Amino acid sequence: MWTLFTSHASEFFTGFGWTILSSVIALIGSTILGLGFALLQIVPNRFANIVGKIYIEVVRNIPLLVITMFFYVVVAKVLNLNGFVSGTIGLTLYTSAFIAETIRAGINSVDSGQYEGARSNGLSWWQAMRYVVLPQAIRLVIPPLGNQFVNLIKNSSVLAFVAGLDLMYQANMISQLTFDTFGPYIIVAIFYLILTLPLSYYMRYLENKTDR
Amino acid sequence: MQDFLQAYSWINMRFLLTGLWVTIEVSVISIIFSFIIGSILGVIRYMKVKYLSAIVGFIIDMIRNLPLLLIIFFTYFALPRIGVHFNVTVSTIVAMTIFESAMLAEIVRSGIKAVPKGQLEGALSNGLNFYQALWHILLPQAYKKMIPPIVSQFVSLIKDTSLATIIMLPEVTFRAQTIYAQKPMEIIPMFLMLAILYFILNFTISQIGSYIDRRMVS
Amino acid sequence: MQIKKVAGLTLGFLAAGLFVSGVATSPVQAETAAKNQTYDRIKKTHTMNWGVKGDTKLMGLTNIRTGKLEGFDIDMAKAITKRIDPKAKPELTQITSGTRVPMLLNGNIDAIIATMTITPERKKVVDFSEPYFNAGQALMVMKKSDVKSIKDLNHKGARILGVQGSNSIENVKKFAPKAKVVALPDYATALTALESGQGDALTTDNSILYGMAVDNHNVKVVGGNFTTEPYGVAVDKADPKLTKAINKAIDEMKADGSYDKLAKKWFNDVPGMNWKEVTE
Question: Could you tell me which residue ranges the Ionotropic glutamate receptor C-terminal domain spans (chain C) (predicted)?
């Protein structure tokens, strides 16, 4: 196992790098998009609410693989998107729907008296959101949001389907070169755990803290 | 437009729907198994049995933090090397069950934990032993609250069966790929149909889930 | 404090995981299967499990109308099965270039007949029958492309599509070392990727490429073959008796003309292909 690792170290680390890059881009992108769609669902405008709802329901109910493949083989005919970009876009859109739901649930669980109080003190809708509701909501949603990020890192393995150069792709390539179906996957499993385990444990710690 | 409609010929649709049936079959079996196993593991983890809970917790944490794709590869390529042989369908079911049981165990554990402490203490002081209290008091309340996360986990499971295309499970995504590889003109209609089929399936399940949730709460 | 605890827990689990996996691998490597188990099982249960392609026209392709697999490899598999054991029924399992060897070694399938080139590297892990088909690696490009041979792709920025686990992508490193290889899971995805502009060319064996070009008029095969790719049936090294039986079956088929008949059936009408050449 160790020799397998050292003889293919550059591939493993390349894969690790692409997995991290894809995850970070998707994390930032999906948080922004998710926040946008969460707000779209609660602004006092029926049309915006419906648009937000449709986006979330559609994206949430379709597999990530299908979304990614769509970008890789259909959208790429018009725009030039390689596997890494298609995969990262797919990951961003898919995760954004879950983040939107998480944030919306957080906003809803903030006591409605807070919002009404803010409004009756003369704050606009946006000010009430910005200064009263969102700061409290964000504290509530950090643990579930963290779990979404763990899912995001795990889901980045979808890049392997579209030659996205990530960890899973490298594991496949090394496995087929060496005819070893065990070692490469154990090694990438460790790489994934290095990313996901600390995040998971930290989120559980935060959850326990808020429970108390 | 003609091309577009031709893509939905009976021949193609029959091919796709056969795949959808595989998706449903694999999902339902995996849901049943992972619900049972996940519940047991979740309870074990909640109970803090010496050693056992720690070991179970360790395994659950490992599995929960790995990509499902990796677990599918493991069950299909690594398990046979220690003498366990499965065909593609069974492999997928086993991989899904392993992964989803771990996910559900965590939901069950935090669900039981969320039941107010007084409930357990009350039950114990009324003469019930721990298992009776668990079965009659804690679990029913916990499950009622857990319906939304459990249902969304099941929806995830259905979507995730598409990952088994990598080991050539002839489910609906795989079949759509087979069609559009042979008939490149039908690629957009195939993606549209895939989206529609998954949406109908998953949206229906979500709606049923929230209906049950509303009934239970009121 | 808490960060330390998280880091400690993570490290602890990783170490334990490494240990467990180390323990798990050791007996696997020591395992030696009994000789000729597969051959004896085929004779006993009258079923033979073949790993075949489902995404390559002419060789092994899923028919959408019937849901069944068909092609030269499929017909060969059926004919060989009958000659090994007249009572046996062939079971067909669809595989990809990436999954076929592990599946054979794991015992999920008894033999591979799936556009598999006999190479020295593969001979180290599996046994091959004598060659039953002579393919050669070629290039496929979009109709409007001006790429004429693999040499045109030996520059930085060129992207060559291939399939994971095929030796075609290894050959690219020899013939066009400057080009980037984009390896996809299967031929269905690779062909779609070519059409979507994910690469400048798709490379694999001419037999597979000609099959793709039969129904697809947006693409063309160019440049002729730049390697020779003799196909063989792959069998586990622990089953020399099965390899022998397969060789005997192929010889018989070549002698009594049934082999030529199959080759003619599949390749006679394919533009650009000469069935006599590939079966020499």
Answer: 47-269
